[in-house]
Automatic annotation (TrEMBL):
Family per record: Belongs to the IST1 family.
Record region (Disordered): 190-223
InterPro entries given in the database record: Ist1, IST1-like
GO molecular function: ATPase inhibitor activity
A biological process term (GO) from this entry: late endosome to vacuole transport via multivesicular body sorting pathway
Top-level lineage group: Eukaryota
Stated name of the protein: DUF292-domain-containing protein
Annotated source species: Suhomyces tanzawaensis NRRL Y-17324
Length: 244
């Protein structure tokens, strides 16, 4: 049975959570400002007709955006653990309860994928609290209980071509830069505008399929790409860039 965490370690947990939340906010703001600058530079490449170079460099922006999203989730989970810290501090509760389980697992799993030593400290205290076996299963996600949104944002796979095209289209639109992928989007938008008039030979049954973000001829999004893209959130992020 795991031994109760020493009082000193628990006192450090509250302090570390507060510091982690503060630093997570700061890093998000810093990286968001940096990615805005990178988008402007990418738009200049598009204006110069250097699409091949833009497709390579946009991958860095995509990775940074995914990392920022990871930090946003970790910040929320740290807020949750801080709000419910009395549950963690209770020496009688030696197993992780369901109302904090998602937050605990996410912080333990995601800490090593961040650049914050405070998250590493929190991870170690939580593993000390709930035992090495619990910690090992959380770190390896052997039970599959770490939220998929956290697992995917900790992966380092290259972004799919569909996501690259989506980013370049939104950057080109936000900064009024030419990009060949926009022509494909315009065709799809035109199809969407006339989509209510069904072909008599091909009835839709009144159900309209969701439109793809780029041409239907492009490779379909994998589940991972769909999760990472979060098209509505992405478009909202780019909307904030317009006029800057």
């Amino acid at each position: 049975m795991p031994q109760p965490v020493p009082h000193l370690a628990l006192a450090r947990l509250k302090t570390s959570l507060k510091m982690a939340i503060s630093k997570l906010k700061f890093i998000q703001e810093k990286k968001t400002a940096l990615t805005k600058q990178q988008r402007r530079q990418l738009a200049e490449l598009l204006k110069q007709g250097k699409e091949s170079s833009a497709k390579i460099r946009v991958e860095n922006i995509i990775r940074d955006d995914i990392y920022i999203e990871l930090l946003e989730y970790l910040e929320l989970y740290c807020e949750l653990l801080l709000a419910r810290i009395t549950i963690i501090l209770d020496p009688a509760r030696t197993t992780c309860e369901n109302n904090i389980l998602e937050g605990v697992l996410s912080v333990i799993y995601g800490a090593s994928h961040s650049e914050l030593k405070e998250l590493i400290t929190i991870r170690d205290i939580l593993i000390h609290k709930y035992g090495p076996d619990f910690g090992k299963r959380a770190l390896e996600n052997s039970d599959g209980h770490v939220p998929e949104k956290i697992v995917k944002r900790c992966q380092v796979d290259p972004p799919e071509e569909t996501l690259v095209n989506l980013y370049l289209c939104e950057i080109a639109r936000a900064y009024e830069a030419p990009y060949s992928g926009l022509k494909i989007e315009e065709i799809e938008e035109a199809k969407k505008d006339t989509g209510d008039e069904d072909d008599d030979d091909e009835p839709s049954g009144g159900v309209k399929e969701p439109e793809a973000p780029i041409a239907e001829t492009a490779k379909p999004l994998s589940p991972a790409a769909k999760e990472l893209s979060e098209f509505d959130a992405l478009k909202a992020r780019f909307a904030a860039l317009k006029g800057k």
